[in-house]
Amino acid sequence: WQQGARFAAGTSAAAAAPLTIGRGATATLVAPAALDYARPPAKAGAADSFGGLFAVTIARAGRYRVALGGGAWIDVVQGDRLLPSVAHDHGPACSPIRKMVDFDLAPGRYLIQIAGSKTRDLSLMVAAVPR
């Protein structure tokens, strides 16, 4: 989480910033007007909020957790549909993780859409959830 890369969020599905499973990152998000989401966010942010698009490739089916260092809406998109989340939680006490959302994913490429962040910089990570 602490040693992640720093990069700019993507502004469209084609330009989605790649994430590595199990590796933290800090992304610089952009204003909603600059974003071309693959699907409209389930919960759009205010005009003065920030968001971005990220791509992740899943090699093995399982449960995956998207963790954020701040408050924002998380959607996972495959093809033309928003996928349902299966669990939500806060990060451990005294940790920099504020929000965690789990998704059951099959092998393939997914988009992670972030919307409604009050801050331009956001730490995030996608990790496999042990079963």
Report on this structure.
This protein has 131 residues and is mostly beta strands. The protein has a single domain (5-128), classed as Jelly Rolls (Sandwich). It is built from no helices and eleven strands. The strands form two sheets. Strands 1-3-11-5-9-8 form a six-stranded mixed β-sheet, with no helix packed on it.
Question: How is this structure best summarized?
Answer:
The protein is an all-beta fold and 131 residues long. The chain is built from no helices and 11 strands.
Protein traits:
single chain; globular; 5-stranded mixed β-sheet; mainly beta; 131 residues; 6-stranded mixed β-sheet; Jelly Rolls
Strand content: over 45%
| Shape annotation | globular
Q: Give the terminus-to-terminus CA distance.
A: 21 Å
CATH C-level label: Mainly Beta
Portion of residues within helices:
under 10%
Briefly note the CATH topology name.
Jelly Rolls
Number of helices: 0
Task: Please outline the major beta sheet.
Answer: 6 strands, mixed
Spell the H/E element sequence: EEEEEEEEEEE
| Spatial ordering of strands, largest sheet | 1-3-11-5-9-8
Determine the mean pLDDT.
93
How large is the radius of gyration? 13 Å
* Number of distinct beta strands: 11
Q: Give start-end ranges of low-pLDDT stretches.
A: none
Helix/strand class: mainly beta
How many structural units, i.e. domains? Answer: 1
CATH architecture: Sandwich
Please render the helix and strand layout as text.
Layout: E1 5-8, E2 17-18, E3 25-28, E4 50-58, E5 62-68, E6 73-78, E7 81-82, E8 87-89, E9 99-105, E10 108-117, E11 121-128
Parallel strand pairs: 1-3, 2-4
Antiparallel strand pairs: 3-11, 4-10, 5-9, 5-11, 6-7, 6-10, 8-9
